[in-house]
Amino acid sequence: MSDYPATPVEACEPPYYAVVFTSVRTGEQDGYGETSARLEELVKDVPGFLGMDHAQTPGGLSITVGYFRDAEALARWRSDAEHRAAQRRGRDEWYQSYTLHVAKVERSHGFVRSRTAD
């Protein structure tokens, strides 16, 4: 998987959608990295895509949260042909288990510590 920024996606003006994909992968990962990188590039081209956060535990639980401006943007991503093909391959090969949660965000705010001179 590609390197993700060390900061979370910035808070956006609600409402918008958050898609939480939590997974545990199998030992069979042939082609996973390449497919994941390709999907990351594709989703950036979806009008209304706001960003993505990703984290993984040492035990192998992976969480990816994608943010979308509206239901139409989410529907465009959900129906993308390459994304659909990757989902099928994921169920067949790469994932031991996963859950997907889609939520409408009603409140959002952030914090960034300001840098001070030492």
How would you describe this protein?
This protein has a single domain, classed as 2-Layer Sandwich (Alpha-Beta Plaits). It has 3 helices and 4 strands. It has helices at residues 32-44, 71-78, 81-94; strands at 16-25, 49-56, 61-68, 95-105. Strands 2-3-1-4 form a 4-stranded antiparallel β-sheet. Strand 2 and strand 3 form a beta hairpin. The radius of gyration is 16 Å and the shape is globular. The mean pLDDT is 92.
Summary of the model, kept short:
By secondary structure, the chain is of the alpha+beta class. It contains three helices and four strands; from the N terminus they run βαββααβ.
CATH C-level class is: Alpha Beta
Spans of at least 5 consecutive residues with low confidence:
none
Rg computed from alpha carbons, rounded to a whole number of angstroms: 16 Å
Beta-strand percentage range: 25-35%
Q: Based on helices, strands and strand pairing, what is the structural class?
A: alpha+beta
Shape summary: globular
Main pleated-sheet profile:
4 strands, antiparallel
Keywords:
single chain; 118 residues; alpha+beta; Alpha-Beta Plaits; four-stranded antiparallel β-sheet; globular
Show the helix and strand layout:
Layout: E1 16-25, H1 32-44, E2 49-56, E3 61-68, H2 71-78, H3 81-94, E4 95-105
